[in-house]
Amino acid sequence: xxxxxxxxxxYLVSKHKVNFITIISIISILGITxxxxxxxxxxxxxxxxxxLVSQYLMNLDPDIRITATTVEGExxxxxxxxxxxxIEEIQYFSSFVDGKVLAYNxxxxxxxxxxxxxxxxxxxxxxIDENILYGTTDFSTEKNIANVVLGLQLADRLQVxxxxxxxxxxxxxxxxxxTQLSLPLSKKVVVSGIFNSNNNDYDAGYIFxxxxxxxxxxxxxxxxxxxxxxxxxxxxxxxxKNMLEERLNKNDFTISxxxxxxxx
Length: 264
Fold this sequence. Notes:
alpha+beta
């Protein structure tokens, strides 16, 4: 019999009659039992709630984002892929462009976020396929008309379904278009899929496309805004962010870790 078992048996299974000290011991044991049980339940609930919140709020978010903030940083973006390949914790990465455009359909207009991503990593990095409600994740271009996917709430506001055509109007050069009475930069796109991520920011305000149409509308030409990465485990977010900050000039780049509380 172990020492702990001996002590427990000595006080719990006593041959003496029940007295005041025994009653206090029983009350103490019951109190500790209830307290520990309550602590376990509360921690379990909060852990489950945290996972649920992370799943909804960061459903389409990458783990790491690197954005060039200066002209010098934009020139060094070509070096980023080699750097990301050296980090074992990074599973997938993709270049991206992101910005505001005007979406128009049959008299209905909405200011939306257009995000251009690489087709090959669209599902692995952003889990778009898992959230598709109608249609498919198709970013191909046919006859100079690109396919896009958009959020369910945005599709409802624009009154579109899969197969419908949208007109996206670029903010680039719109002032010149107004003063010179010329047409602003625009592009027709076809809705290939509608997603529902349970995240209002994405479902009500985002359109995803391949890189080329987004680069054209947002004025990036052949360049990109930065890179986003998915890790083998989100717990590595803070350490990978610190690693990248040591390798990259903080004056030229902004590095965000979406699963780090300091970056919310």
